[in-house]
Specification:
This protein is α/β, with parallel strands linked by helices. The protein folds into two domains: about 5-240, Aspartate Aminotransferase, domain 2 (3-Layer(aba) Sandwich), CATH 3.40.640.10; about 245-310 and about 345-375, Alpha-Beta Complex (Aspartate Aminotransferase, domain 1), CATH 3.90.1150.10. It has helices at about 5-20, 30-40, 55-65, 80-90, 105-110, 130-140, 195-200, 230-260, 290-295, 315-320, 330-335, 345-355, 365-375, and strands at about 45-50, 70-75, 90-95, 115-120, 145-150, 155-160, 160, 170-175, 185-190, 270, 280-285, 300-305, 355-360. A seven-stranded mixed beta sheet has the order 1-9-8-5-4-2-3, sandwiched between helices. Strands 10-11-13-12 form a four-stranded antiparallel beta sheet. The chain has a two-stranded antiparallel sheet with strand order 6-7. It is globular, with a radius of gyration of 21 Å. GO terms for molecular function: pyridoxal phosphate binding; transaminase activity.
Length: about 375
């Protein structure tokens, strides 16, 4: 993630000094400027800043009209928010295996589609893009809505297109672990006017006023409050300028290390859905035991199997189908019985057991990391 520094501090100070802290204040401008920059970077027609990536997913689902009785396909490897977001609009998550790219498996998507499936949420995990060509083709074939979870991949591209701008809607996150870091924050992307109007209405209590003059013929409906303030947006604008240079450094480093690691007989470099612009670097060992042995080698961060609530077996509230009130439980409204078991996505668990993250070592000279890679590839 880009480091926080003096420029963010100055930007926040400017917002405070101007005294227009709410985005719809008379002379507020930082949020509008940030959303314009997001549109320019991603190519999406509309960008809506919200309070978190989770909020962006929920707002996108609400914008798409997903609700009770609907099923939403989500990968078994993602932060739990991807699965809980459908629950918050009254739908239920259906878990789909990943493949060796560490992203949702298009073949398993086809297997999991039912007459009640309404949407797919492909997740670009750790800067690794999903196979969006295949996913969009499946969605078109079955009349499904695609909401990209690009929270972990702000600024990354797939075949020249920004992640989050390829599906019908996209969600971004700006929390402290993401490519753009302002502590907490997010955004909804879409090029559909109606979806944008609905997302904007939902994020502002359903108010069709104050900057919402163009309603695209959408009636107001009850929403929540996900509005950001001008301090967040001022900081995000500074961070946004750092994202693409940072990702380019990662791309060059990955391009330098991956061919060396590919020579190894002990593991393979994880396949990628857009190898030419790849940023993430992980390796896949033949067995769990081989992956555990790799963890002791310099240059390896960790096995993905140890990744807490990114793994479906650790989603306790989902498995329990437990909501804050029993009468607000979407599984009770589902049109069929939905069950979750620890072994339901065994392929995902196997891949995560055998996958290790490689440290790109951006703080060190390339020659040093190439030497480390040669040591790993022995």
């Amino acid at each position: 993630m880009p480091a926080m520094g003096i420029c963010e501090w100055i930007a926040a100070g400017r917002a405070i000094a101007e005294g227009q802290l709410t985005r719809y204040a008379e002379k507020a401008h930082f949020t509008d400027e940030f959303e314009q920059s997001l549109r320019e970077m991603t190519g999406a027609k509309h960008a809506l800043a919200v309070t978190s990536g989770t909020g962006a997913l929920i707002a996108a689902l609400a914008a798409a009209g997903i609700g009770p009785g609907d099923e939403v396909l989500v990968p078994a490897y993602t932060w739990m928010a991807t699965a809980t977001a459908p629950v918050m609009v009254g739908a239920v998550p259906i878990l789909v295996d990943i493949n060796e790219t560490l992203t949702i498996d298009p073949e398993d998507i086809e297997r999991k589609i039912t007459p009640y499936t309404r949407a797919i949420i492909p997740v670009h995990m750790g800067n690794a893009p999903c196979d969006m060509d295949a996913i969009m083709a499946i969605a078109k074939k079955h009349g499904l809505i695609v909401i990209e979870d690009a929270c972990q991949s702000v600024g990354v591209t797939y075949k020249g297109r920004a992640l989050g701008s390829i599906g019908h809607l996209g969600a971004l996150s700006f929390n402290k672990m993401k490519n753009l870091n302002i502590g907490e924050g997010g955004a909804v992307l879409t090029s559909d006017d109606q979806y944008f109007a609905r997302a904007r209405s939902y994020h502002d209590l359903g108010a069709m006023i104050r900057g919402h003059e163009d309603r695209y013929n959408e009636p107001a409906f009850i929403g929540v409050n996900m509005k950001v303030n001008e301090i967040q947006s001022a900081m995000a604008q500074v961070q946004l300028r750092k994202v693409l240079p940072m990702l380019e450094r990662q791309r060059r480093r990955r391009a330098s290390l991956a061919p060396i690691l590919a020579r190894s007989s002990q593991f393979q470099v994880t396949p990628h859905n857009d190898a030419e612009s790849a940023i993430s670097l992980t390796v896949l060992a033949p067995t769990r035991e081989a992956a555990i042995a790799l963890e002791d080698r310099k240059g390896i961060w960790n096995r993905l199997r140890d990744n807490s609530k990114h793994i479906y077996t650790n989603w306790e509230p989902i498995f329990a189908k437990r909501t804050f009130h029993p009468k607000m439980n979407p599984w009770a409204w589902a049109k069929r019985e939905i069950t979750y078991t620890p072994d339901m996505c065994a392929r995902t668990l196997d891949i995560l057991e055998r996958t290790c993250v490689v440290n790109l070592g951006l703080k060190y000279p390339t020659c040093v990391m190439r030497r480390v890679a040669k040591g790993l590839a022995v």
